[in-house]
Amino acid sequence: MNTPRLNWILFGIYTLATVSVLLLSFVSPAVWNIAYAPVREGIASLIYPPIEVSLLYSTEKAEWMEQAIARFKATRPRISGRSIEIDLQTSGSREMYLAVLDGQVQPDLISPASMLQISLLEDLSQSKFGYPVVNASDRATCRPVLMSPVVLVAWKDRAEVLWGDNPNGNMWLRMHDALTHSQGWEAYEHPEWGYIKFGHTNPLKSNSGFQTILLMTYNYFGKTSGLTAVDILSDEAYQQWFIEFESTISKFGDSTGTYMNEIIAYGPSLYDFVSVYEATAIEQAENAIGRYGELRIYYPPATSVSDHPFCVLQADWVTPEKAEAAELFLDFLSGREMQALALTYGFRPVDDSIPLDGPGSPFLKYVNNGVRLQLPPQVEVPPGNVLQTLLDFWQRNVGN
Questions:
Q1: Nearest residue to 259 (alpha-carbon basis) of 216, 301, 171, 197
Q2: Cα 238 from chain centroid?
Q3: Taking the CB of residue 88, how many other CB atoms lie within 10 A of it?
Q4: Which of 32, 33, 258, 326 has CB atoms 3.0–4.6 Å from 109's, for a disulfide?
Q5: How many C-beta neighbours within 10 Å does residue 296 have?
Q6: What's the domain range around 22?
Q7: Are residues 189 and 202 in the same domain?
Q8: CA 7 to CA 10: how far, in whole Å?
Q9: Each residue of 57-111: pLDDT tens digit?
Q10: Distance separating alpha carbons of residues 284 and 364, to the nearest angstrom
Q11: How far is 119 from 134, CA to CA, in rounded Å?
């Protein structure tokens, strides 16, 4: 049976219209959205290959990042008709900037745990290449996305004996005195507790350890800004104090999460106090209930915040298209949807309009464990050369 002539005419008109819409969609974003998606995407991938953005990021935010990638992809982001694909790879924060400096990796976008590493990379790349490969002051291409300060997690009974409800402005000075006292807890009328045990991660491998020794140093000098290399290298009393403090730590861990897991699993037999991220403490707070007493969170008098910057590299392998795509992804991460999601993972949003005490907020849930809604003042991020001086001093005199 022959197909009626009218059917063929209608089929031809439909085919012509479909092809016309597809062709127009490649030159007109307004038409793109009405094109038939499977055909549109298939043809587009052949004509315009995806823009692949390689992202190297620290592992503390891995779960949030997996959600971010899925949600970003669901928005079908495009630049000049080309889709955007984010290629993920994890790295320690220190290894990240060293690998970029050495040319071992060539990411388009990096996200260490804090601006400390960006400051180091900016300074060291300027010295090595004659230009910085990141620009920390350019908020379009380099900005914090998540916040989590360094805190001390401690068994409540130990902390109350050492400093009561308030460690006051001399937390690190008092911690030094307690750790270096030859009698340990006996000096505080609790000989049954043995030695006073404190831990933080290796600052050459983990950002939380790096931030901890920076806070210790600031507290010793009684300031929150203006730290210099001269302070570190010329003050013999500070050097002795610092080495004494660090020498009381039997093992420097590689991972902040490991310290949190160990204080929960082994209790005060292994650690009385550990320095970790607030988000890590919040994440594990439920697991500590009913084990060895109450774990509490204490904030240093001045803190250092892991602000998880995302920075587009200013390098010859980063094409203008990749830079534009990376900035689009950065805008998405900074948007309200992803910032609200960050809150559920124990991070503080950089979007001030998102309340920390809203319904279901973990910050509200763990207020009785010491979580604060308002942070203490932050210490200044020193220039890269000062940070490198502090790391070098630690490595020469303490590193193991």
A1: 197
A2: 29
A3: 14
A4: 326
A5: 24
A6: 16-47
A7: yes
A8: 5
A9: 998 899 999 999 999 999 999 998 899 999 999 988 889 999 999 999 999 999 9
A10: 15
A11: 9
Hey, which bits of the chain come out as E strands? 51-57, 78-79, 82-90, 109-111, 142-144, 146-155, 198-199, 273-277, 295-298, 305-306, 309-312, 348-349
Q: Give the bridge partners for 303, in sequence order.
A: 378
Residue type, 13: I
Q: In this predicted model, which residue has the larger pLDDT, 342 or 360? A: 342
What is the rounded (10 degree) CA torsion for 286, 152, 339, 331?
A: -140
- How distant is the alpha carbon of residue 386 from its chain centre? 21
Q: Which amino acid is at 240?
A: Q
Within 8 A by CB and 6+ apart from 291, the residues are 264, 267
Backbone dihedral angles phi then psi of residue 151, each to the nearest 5 degrees? -135, 165
Residue identified by tokens 């003042």 is: 377
Q: Is residue 358 part of a domain?
A: no
pLDDT in tens, 68-80: 999 999 999 999 8
Within 248-369, where are the H helices? 256-266, 278-284, 320-334, 336-344, 362-365
